[in-house]
Amino acid sequence: MRMNRETMLARLAEPGPWDVIIVGGGATGLGCAIDAASRGYRTLLLERRDFAQGTSSRSTKLAHGGVRYLQRGDIALVTEALHERGLMRRNAAHLVHDRRFVVPNYDWWEAPFYGVGLKVYDLLAGKLGFGASRVLSKEETIERLPNIETDGLRGGVLYFDGQFDDARLAVDMAKTAADQGATVLNYTCVTELLHEHGLVTGVVARDEESGTDFELRAHVVINATGVFADSLRRMDDPKAPPIIRASQGIHIVLDADFLPGNSAIMVPHTDDGRVLFAIPWLGKVVVGTTDTPRTEIEAEPRPLPEEVDFLLRHCGRYMTRDPEPSDVRSVFAGLRPLVGSADEGSTAAISRDHDVSISRSGLVTVAGGKWTTYRRMAEDTINQACLIGGLDEAPCVTADLNIHGNHRHAERFGALARYGSDAIELQAMIDREPALAERLHPDHDIVLGEVLWAAREEMARTVGDVLSRRTRMLLLDAAASIEAAPAVAACLGKELGRDDAWVSAQVEEYSRRARGYCLT
Question: Which domains does the chain have, with CATH numbers?
Answer without folding.
Answer: 5-55+168-243+348-400 (3.50.50.60), 96-163+245-339 (3.30.9.10), 410-515 (1.10.8.870)
